[in-house]
Write a structure and sequence with these properties.
The complex is a heterodimer of chains A (315) and B (273). Chain A has 315 residues and is mainly alpha-helical. Chain A has helices at 2-6, 25-32, 34-60, 79-87, 89-120, 127-134, 136-139, 142-153, 159-166, 181-205, 211-218, 223-251, 255-260, 272-281, 286-312, and strands spanning 63-64, 74-75. With 273 residues, chain B is an all-alpha fold. Mean pLDDT of chain B is 85; it is low at 1-6 and 269-273. Classes of the chains: A mainly alpha (315), B mainly alpha (273). At the A-B interface, helix 1, helix 2, helix 3, helix 5 and helix 6 of A face helix 1, helix 4, helix 5, helix 6 and helix 7 of B.
Amino acid sequence: MTTMTNETYTGPLPARPGEVKPPSGWSLFIEQHPVLLFTLPAVVVVFVLMVFPVFYTLYMSLHSWFASSLTRPEFIGLQNFKRAFVQDERFRNAIWLTIYFTALATAMQLVLGVSLALLLNRPFRGKGFFRSIFLLPMVATPVAIALVWMMMYNPTLGVMNYLVGLVGLGPYKWASDVRIVIPALAVVDTWEWTPLITLITLAGLATLPLEPYESALIDGATPAQMFWRITLPLLRPTIIVALLFRSIDCLKTFDIIYVMTGGGPGFASETLNVYTFQVGLFYFHIGYASSLLVILFALVLGVSLILIKVRRSAW
Amino acid sequence: MHGWKRSGESPWTYLLLVAILLPFLFPLAWMFMSSLKTQVQNTAYPPVWVFMPTMNNYREVFIKNPFFQFTWNSLVVAAGSTGLALLLGLPASYAIARFRRTGIALAILTARMAPGIAYLIPWFILFTKAKMIDTYTALILTHLIVALPLVLWVMIGFFEDVPAELIEAARIDGCSNFRAFFRVALPLAKPGIVATGILSFIFSWNNFLFSLIIAGFKTRTLPIAVYNFLSYEEINWGGLTAAATIITLPVLILSLFIQKHIVRGLTFGAVKG
């Protein structure tokens, strides 16, 4: 298939008397430049919609400008970045909370997601039905999810305090408690996205070869040894891909945090993305917000590159 | 694999399945249950588990708010952005898959790393200057920022699965590139197109960040409407959960049709924020 595609003939078609007329004019142009014509509309739209904002953000990150002001943006070099790292307490708090939230949420869903995949990796009837139910948290509308968890987390009448009370814990103030608001939000993210890791891991498990297990059995390996020595190393690329997608999204989590806490109580759950939203679209300080966006993008890119590198190298 | 394992189909397996499903289903079930309770039942502690369901909350949501208008707005924006994304994305992903223009996937992945606010701020300023805030056009264009890369990402895979031999055969029979695309590739990729369309629709339907800024009173979509309920006087949990159920139900039903393709779509994720 590969070779076929590489040798694809895209030039003008040979004329066959009485059958097909050789293309001419406009249709000849289409025949000669299929890639250009098929991709051009999409490329133009992507360029306008997405590439323009990226350059705009980079440009603005070096300027001081309020959207409400009538003056032109003033060039201030790297002042915005200096301000963020040197003076801005709220920014440092936001960076720390972003990393804390991401580490906690991805760790929880990774352990839970992979464990569930190992438990579920057996034949049973009704797999399709199970799958359908299991993926519901991922597609449900985030605002609705945030709202239900707010209700469940309510300190006085929420069902969560009732449930943990059954096993003798609590009561907690959940998302209204400065100390546990981030873990409480990480639980919501974990609820939402553990199924994704499970489904990706299950797909990975289905492709594992049988031979290593057969020889391990002959050598008298225990199931635990087989898990740590065979399954986990073979699954590593799959798991890291799942981790990559989850970290990218966790670092940028907005909907559930903004709806459930608005960054509060105080600034206790104000992650970088929520803070940037406030700076840019509440205070309209576009210049500073743009530099925060550049930092957030650098953070996401950095984490992604580390994961991609880990995927290629040995443990 | 794992031929050495005991057969999985024991009663224990099913018990295990139920135990796993329960926590994942509970919040959605709780949302639905609360939407059928009175305010007194919703604020009772310990929580009420058995009760006479009432439809009053649903009735009130539609009577007290222009909820049909919000639903219509959501539909227009989701259908508009999905339609445009397919129109632009299908030929492009076909060409990319067939003529092996690689690097595109990497570009999309990078675009996905950028925070959604980075796309939102410039468009917000532009749309404000052009007096286009609170118009369907502005909403559909911003939602396209999510939809178009999604269509490209998912459809390249589906078009790669179309056997190149079939397209070659059509070309030798005198089909132009256009006809080969419309008559051969598109029909063969139809299941993929349906799945991609549904995914794109769900992403737009669920979108919060872009609509929060771009939509005004006239074009307010469902997620924003529900978010605004939250800031009203005293929180009416029954009405809120009824509204949340109304938003979520169509998405849950749609997702059942595409469960086989959902992981591929969701690893694209949204340009979430």
